[in-house]
């Protein structure tokens, strides 16, 4: 898989090979704190030494340009060092998403053609390796640098493959390339909460941005909001739409001291303008609302100060100059400097989404006369649960495998806990009565817990649209009225 021309630092001068900017940052000021984990503070020099040790261990294990390294790690200073080291040796790096069914995890590691799997035990061994001098980025521009896997709720994890050329073209470690909204965000990342996994595209991107802006990464313990903000005196963090709703509700009912908070980056499912306005009213001018995809990276972002205009609340911001946006037949197509080159080991899906240097977002939208991007819906049938995409068709197929189910239909519904939730309607097979809990167990086993329907509704028939096709909107109407 090779990069297209747009993968290489479009219009920004010669690319510095990823992750050399991070290695240079760590070397520049060895005494600077870069990572806090509880009472432990790790300096840039200590982090650089850990990167060198892990890199030496990976090379000894056969990892280098063209080899696959899977990271099955949480959020620790050592996990950050392992992530940087795996890129530094030029490997093809993939994270193992949490919540995969065992069969999906095994299939993912097989498909990724992995040479080394780094879990916590293996990482401890790698850290005992003797370093071989300063680490220098060794990747090859045309090689795949990163495979970012989806949750597997299409039935099989799908990997976005990003080349070293594409990662080297990113704006994150270069202040002179920051779009306006990012330049407004960066100074607020002085104490940036890190949670989940560093293999997350969003978490790694904003961690590097925080370090570039002079901030410190802070492991969120406990991970939840608002407790982590209060305990760690955090200034910024990433939050899903569902957790933002919970935080706003908690602040209304029993306010915590969030005086240190300066930025929350909303990730995942769409945020309704009314809920965005409410969040700004309750939390203050700290909410950064944006739009991006694993396939593309950031497409647009809007800063809190811009959202003083009610019209801007209905948008996801202006795409920066580095991002090309076109609307074709109502669908948003984009080109970004750091977009993926395709899907790993999936030429059919690659051909459908990556077309002539453009990425089909499969989202519907329009750009207004002021250059702001408005999203109008989806061209694909998905539910976004806690920022993870669940494909409705995959859940429907699993439900229909139950002998008691004749037909199954899945729809997204707004949810204050997860942003959106999966809801299913099933028509019983003749003379049978579906066991709702068995259906949920079946989905969990096949697709993981994120895809489990919150509601399973048994109906005798499904209403039809004038076209004669099942009318999913009519199925939802009773819930909307209740």
From TrEMBL:
Span of domain AMP-dependent synthetase/ligase: 27-344
GO MF assignments: ligase activity
Species lineage: Bacteria, Bacillati, Actinomycetota, Actinomycetes, Micrococcales
Highest taxon, organism lineage: Bacteria
Name of this chain's protein: Long-chain fatty acid--CoA ligase
Organism field: Cellulomonas wangleii
PROSITE patterns in alphabetical order: AMP_BINDING (PS00455)
Pfam families: AMP-binding, AMP-binding_C
Stored CDD domains: AFD_class_I (cd04433)
């Amino acid at each position: 898989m090779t990069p297209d021309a747009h993968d290489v630092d479009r219009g920004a001068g010669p690319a510095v090979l990823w992750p050399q900017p991070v290695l240079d940052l760590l070397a520049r000021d060895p005494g600077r704190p870069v990572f806090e984990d509880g009472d432990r503070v790790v300096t840039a020099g200590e982090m650089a030494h850990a990167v060198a040790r892990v890199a030496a261990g990976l090379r000894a294990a056969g990892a280098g340009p063209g080899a696959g390294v899977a990271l099955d790690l949480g959020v620790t200073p050592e996990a950050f060092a392992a992530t940087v080291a795996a890129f530094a040796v030029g490997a093809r790096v993939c994270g193992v998403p949490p919540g995969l069914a065992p069969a999906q995890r095994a299939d993912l590691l097989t498909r990724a053609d992995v040479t080394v799997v780094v879990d916590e035990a293996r990482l401890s061994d790698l850290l005992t390796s003797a370093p071989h001098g300063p680490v220098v980025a060794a990747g090859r521009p045309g090689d795949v640098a990163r495979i970012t896997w989806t949750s597997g709720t299409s039935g099989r994890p799908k990997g976005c493959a990003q080349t070293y050329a594409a990662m080297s073209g990113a704006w994150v470690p270069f202040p002179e390339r920051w779009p306006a909204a990012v330049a407004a965000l960066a100074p607020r990342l002085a104490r940036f909460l890190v949670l989940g996994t560093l293999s997350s595209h969003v978490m790694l991107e904003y961690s590097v941005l925080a370090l570039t802006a002079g901030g410190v990464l802070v492991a969120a313990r406990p991970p939840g909001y608002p407790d982590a903000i209060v305990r760690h005196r955090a200034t910024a963090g990433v939050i899903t739409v569902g957790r933002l709703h919970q935080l706003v509700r908690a602040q209304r009912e029993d306010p915590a001291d969030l005086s240190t908070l300066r930025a929350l980056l909303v990730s995942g499912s769409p945020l309704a303008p009314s809920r965005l306005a409410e969040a700004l009213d309750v939390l203050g001018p700290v909410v950064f609302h944006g739009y991006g995809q694993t396939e593309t990276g950031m497409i647009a972002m809007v800063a809190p100060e811009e959202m003083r205009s009610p019209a801007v609340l209905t948008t996801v911001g202006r795409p920066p100059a580095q991002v090309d946006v076109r609307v074709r037949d109502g669908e948003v197509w984009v080109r970004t400097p750091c977009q993926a080159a395709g899907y790993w080991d999936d030429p059919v899906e690659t051909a459908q989404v990556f077309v002539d240097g453009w990425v089909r977002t499969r989202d519907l939208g329009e750009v207004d006369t002021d250059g702001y991007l408005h999203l109008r819906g989806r061209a694909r049938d998905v539910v976004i649960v806690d920022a993870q995409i669940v494909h409705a068709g995959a859940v429907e197929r699993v439900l229909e495998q139950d002998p008691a189910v004749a037909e199954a239909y899945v729809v997204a519904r707004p949810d204050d806990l997860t942003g959106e939730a999966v809801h299913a309607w099933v028509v019983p097979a003749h003379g049978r009565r579906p066991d709702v809990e068995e259906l949920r167990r079946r989905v969990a086993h096949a697709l993981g817990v994120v895809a489990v329907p919150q509601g399973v509704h048994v109906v005798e028939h499904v209403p039809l649209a004038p076209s004669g096709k099942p009318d999913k909107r009519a199925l939802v109407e009773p819930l909307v009225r209740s």
